[in-house]
Amino acid sequence: MSAQHSIAIVGGGPAGALAGALLAAGGREVLLFDEKLAWEKPCGGGLTHKALRQYPFLADAGSESNPVEDCELISPSGQRVRFHMQHPVAIFSRLALNGLLLERARRAGVDVRKQRVTRITGNGGDWQLVTPQQEYRASHLMLAAGARNPFRGQFLPPIPPSDLMVTAGYFLPGRSSLMHIQFLKGITGYIWVFPRADHVSAGIAGKMGETSTAELRRILEKWLGENGFALDDGRFYSHILPSFRPQTFETLEVCGEGWSMIGDSAGLVDPITGEGLYYALRSAELCAGALLAGRPGEYQGVLEEEVLAELKLAARVSQRFYNGEIFGESVLERMVSLTEQSASFRELMSDLFAGVQGYRDLRARLYRILPSVMAEGLAGALRRPWNKSGGSKFAADALAE
Ligand SMILES: Cc1cc2nc3c(=O)[nH]c(=O)nc-3n(C[C@H](O)[C@H](O)[C@H](O)COP(=O)(O)OP(=O)(O)OC[C@H]3O[C@@H](n4cnc5c(N)ncnc54)[C@H](O)[C@@H]3O)c2cc1C
Question: Whose CA is nearest to atom 16 of ligand 1?
């Protein structure tokens, strides 16, 4: 058994690697385990402007990522609209992103080990971690083992299927500067095509229990075929993705006596968009900050205030976003139409995709832009069904509720 370390991190994905780098840079002795180290984790790899602004070294990654400025949205009925994003999304291969973050951790002084942690025992102040190679001891345990976190049950209730999405996808050869998002009827999720520097990640996500992975795969393959993407040289992937309900976020505990959870292992993913990379990085930063300040328990509070408040709201809006109607038409159809017809609405969509428009002040912005949206020629399209519903409901209310 090796000497006691200050902090052991299980998982070297974006969350674990960034937390390790920050803690080591702050003078802590950090041991990090990842069974695979850098690998092509099933993912779109899209990093929003919000993430690039917060972590400028990722914006400077150059050829490691593909800056995508144009997006095509496709409604369930097939209506298509392309729009320019003011702030590009940087699309990374996960092999490159994880490699870059792990290298930063190593350079900061983290002891990075390619080992699978198979057992954790002990308690706050004295944890024992077992790998096939060795046993280790640590004072603080940070769980960053992703959505399939095998140790979650030791600290928190297991994630029920109703709090998960299933995904299926392909890594395909090809290059492009256009990303595609196809919304689907009856599926709480979407198809994405995210072009990376030297290949494309295309996938589909849906709520667990709603549609089987096999069915999602069939829908994706059909869509790819119809949209000119050949599967011949593609590599299939599938993974789970946390998609918490509001009540799950309400009761979520992310730390306790001598332990903390960050990233996917804590379920920190936007239930509408599936964005998890920013939250993995930000939770790592907030958790590392609390540990470095010598007040580890403060992680819960700062996360609640900044991250959980936003994710809770997304969880509340999610059902309405995917399955709701505005004036007799689905929210998704209406959203694609508005993106097509109104420059102000396109700007809003661009900011939502960049992550610079949060959910908390979305309703206020929708109210603010409503006059321009109408002036841009939407009055007719909106007024008729609006009147049908009694004339008392504003479009902004319906979209932001
Ligand atoms: C199909 C799909 C598409 C997605 N697309 C996007 C996207 O475009 N943009 C976005 O922002 N988010 C996306 N996400 C979410 C994103 O992938 C995750 O939020 C992100 O990877 C979370 O990072 P993490 O470090 O918490 O966990 P992970 O990236 O899952 O890292 C966990 C690490 O822990 C290691 N590990 C696990 N168990 C052990 C163990 N016992 N011992 C040692 N090591 C262990 C694993 O090897 C892994 O490297 C997507 C998710 C899926 C499934």
Answer: 276
Whether residue 169 contacts residue 238, with contact meaning beta carbons closer than 8 Å, is answered with: yes
Helices (H), 55-93: 56-59
293, part of any domain: yes
Q: Let me know how long the chain is.
A: 401
Residue 376's Cβ-count burial label (10 Å; 0-12, 13-18, 19+) is middle
CB of 40 shorter than 6 A to ligand 1: no
Among protein residues, the one with the nearest Cα to ligand 1's atom 2 is 43
Number of Cβ atoms within 10 Å of the Cβ of 74: 21
Q: Is the domain of 27 the same as that of 172? A: no
Whether 230 shows a pLDDT value over 90: the answer reads: yes
Domain stops at, among 222, 242, 262: 242
What pLDDT score does 125 carry?
86
Whether 241 is in the pocket of ligand 1, judged by its Cβ within 6 Å, is yes
Same domain, 144 and 177: no
Ligand 1: atom nearest CA of 279 is 19
Q: 152-175: per-residue pLDDT in tens?
A: 999 999 899 999 999 999 999 998
Q: How confident is the model at residue 377 (pLDDT cuts 50, 70, 90)?
A: low
Same domain, residue pair 261 and 234: no
Same domain? For 150 and 177 the reply is no
pTM of the model: 0.94
In whole angstroms, what is the distance from residue 39 CA to residue 399 CA?
A: 39
Residue 120 shares a structural domain with residue 182: no
Residue 302 clears pLDDT 90, i.e. is over it: yes
Between the CA of 330 and the centroid of ligand 1 the distance, in Å, is 32
Residue 390: pLDDT over 60: no
Final residue in a domain of this structure, among 187, 214, 242:
242
- The Å distance, Cα 13 to ligand 1 centre, comes to 6
Residue 236 in contact with ligand 1 by CB distance below 6 A = no
Which domain, by its residues, includes 394? 322-400
By DSSP bridging, strand 164-173 and strand 235-242 are antiparallel
Identify whether 79 is part of a domain: no
Pocket lining: 370 vs ligand 1, CB cutoff 6 Å: no
Does the beta carbon of 350 sit less than 6 angstroms from any atom of ligand 1?
A: no
Measured in angstroms, how far is the CA atom of residue 276 from the centroid of ligand 1?
8
Greatest Cα pair distance, the chain, in angstroms, is: 73
CATH of the domain at 27: 3.50.50.60
